[in-house]
Design goal:
Length: 216
């Protein structure tokens, strides 16, 4: 198997929290960023996903491997997490990932060094998870291309639809509405297609009523 994903969770539950304030929702950006670098390295092991759970006490459960998933626990009390700045939260999340991976590497007999390289990459990018969604799509006459730029932070996701001429001249830049936090917000990126040489359509992956059109 090839390791594809790293996820972090917490054993703390607060029923009064808004969805965008939930610990694992705020961690989705960092986990996605780290996972993208992990997959590029094509690390072969017995699992595809490593789940790291933050425990508020030192009484940690044992590491469990089942059906391609590895669950490990680390000691981190998330009660004070909300008071930190966005940048500090990103730094803490990366630290938690590295603590969990150290345990995972011991269990899976993996080298820790490749994950340290990823850590350095993320720090060099100042923890900012920015990328272009999929590949640019060319218009029917091949004279224009459209793509979506993603800027995924702790609290919100910024999506910018861009239409350019082939020479790079920008014809249109428009923000795409986001109606949900975290990974759920990215579901708006279901299908992007040209309706003609001037108009593109963006469809939600699941909600048929969420359709946006952009015209040059």
């Amino acid at each position: 198997m090839i390791l594809r994903g790293i996820r972090i969770f917490s054993d703390e539950y607060n029923p009064n929290e808004k969805l965008e304030e939930v610990f694992h929702i705020q961690a989705e950006s960092m986990c996605s960023m780290f996972s993208s670098f992990v997959y590029e390295k094509k690390i072969r092991t017995s699992v595809t996903v490593i789940n790291i759970e933050c425990r508020s006490t030192n009484a940690l459960e044992r590491t469990i491997e089942i059906d391609g998933f590895l669950d490990v626990c680390v000691h981190y009390d998330v009660k004070n997490f909300a008071k930190f700045s966005e940048q500090q939260k990103k730094e803490i999340q990366l630290e938690i990932i590295m603590l969990g991976l150290k345990k995972a590497c011991e269990h899976l007999s993996l080298e820790y060094a490749p994950f340290e390289e990823i850590q350095k990459q993320i720090i060099s990018l100042n923890y900012n998870h920015c990328f272009i969604w999929k590949k640019p799509k060319f218009s029917p006459n091949r004279k224009r291309k459209v793509f979506v730029k993603v800027d995924w932070g702790i609290y919100k996701i910024g999506l910018m639809l861009v239409i350019e001429e082939r020479n790079g001249t920008i014809l249109l830049q428009r923000a795409v509405p986001i109606n949900h936090p975290g990974t759920m917000g990215l579901d708006i990126l279901g299908e992007l297609k040209w309706l003609d040489n001037d108009t593109v359509e963006l469809k939600h992956r699941y909600i048929k009523s969420e359709v946006y059109t952009f015209t040059v």
